[in-house]
């Protein structure tokens, strides 16, 4: 790759539209793969007014960081909420429900941010609002279930 392949400006990104129901919507670009990143994942997301891009969740393997590029919104983090605005850095280390996080655009203008995460070969995420847990791994490993449906370690052995 040439040096020019390692750099892209926000205004050059081709944002893809995503929508799930009435609550989740964004325009996003996964930037890391485009630039040849290996150990960090990063993307640029724009949330329309009144929307969020993902469910309230926590990570057990991957750490995330967000930088608010423009706009303002609301950060849910554990049991707390706070206003966020352009220029804010947000740290989301690994952990359980205490580190669950979600960015919500509660304003009347778009909210744009950059997210950065460590890329791990395996990940477990918890979703406190819905009681789900997800296991994700390299390749096609992707399994979501509810914590209430837990099996005993020896079940079926």
From TrEMBL:
Pfam families given in the database record: Cupin_2
GO molecular function: metal ion binding
CDD domains in UniProt: cupin_SPO2919-like
SUPFAM superfamilies assigned: RmlC-like cupins (SSF51182)
Keyword presence, Metal-binding: yes
Alphabetically ordered keywords of this record: Metal-binding
Source organism, top-level taxon: Bacteria
Biological source species: Caenimonas aquaedulcis
Signal peptide segment: none
Domain Cupin type-2 span(s) in chain numbering: 46-116
Keyword hit for Metal-binding: yes
Protein name (record): Cupin domain-containing protein
InterPro entries according to UniProt: Cupin_2, GPI/OXD, RmlC-like_jellyroll, RmlC_Cupin_sf
């Amino acid at each position: 790759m040439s040096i020019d392949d390692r750099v892209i400006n926000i205004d050059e990104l081709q944002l893809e539209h995503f929508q799930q129901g009435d609550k989740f919507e964004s325009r996003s670009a996964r930037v890391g793969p485009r630039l040849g990143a290996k150990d960090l994942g990063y993307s640029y997301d724009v949330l329309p007014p009144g929307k969020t891009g993902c469910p309230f969740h926590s990570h057990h393997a991957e750490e995330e960081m967000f930088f608010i590029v423009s706009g303002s919104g609301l950060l849910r983090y554990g049991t707390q909420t706070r206003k966020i605005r352009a220029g804010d850095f947000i740290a989301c280390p690994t952990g359980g429900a205490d580190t669950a996080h979600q960015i919500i655009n509660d304003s009347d203008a778009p909210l744009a941010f950059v997210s950065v995460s460590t890329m791990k070969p395996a990940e477990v995420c918890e979703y406190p609002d819905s009681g789900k847990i997800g296991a994700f791994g390299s390749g096609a490993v992707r399994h979501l279930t509810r914590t209430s449906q837990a099996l005993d370690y020896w079940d079926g052995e």
